[in-house]
Design a protein that fits this description.
mainly alpha; single chain; about 60% helix
């Protein structure tokens, strides 16, 4: 989800910064676009780092072997 969110924020920020020329009272859309693009880059980088860490993990299986493993015990009450 981090990579997709990063790309989405980059696209929305670029549209607000470079494609929209409307003026909204009290809101600088260019600055909002730059902030969204910065958040998109940060999200994209964090998503890539988390994805590479996830692929580098190792799994270890521990098998406990006992001589009486096939014997089943039932408690009588």
């Amino acid at each position: 989800m981090g990579i997709g969110l990063g790309i989405f924020l980059l696209v929305v920020g670029a549209v607000l910064t470079f494609a929209i020329d409307t003026v909204v009272q009290g809101v600088n859309l260019t600055m909002v676009g730059y902030i969204l693009m910065a958040a998109g880059v940060l999200s994209l980088l964090l998503g890539l780092v988390m994805n590479t860490q996830r692929t580098n993990t190792t799994h270890r299986e521990v098998v406990d072997r006992r001589t009486d493993a096939d014997v089943r015990h039932r408690d009588q009450y």
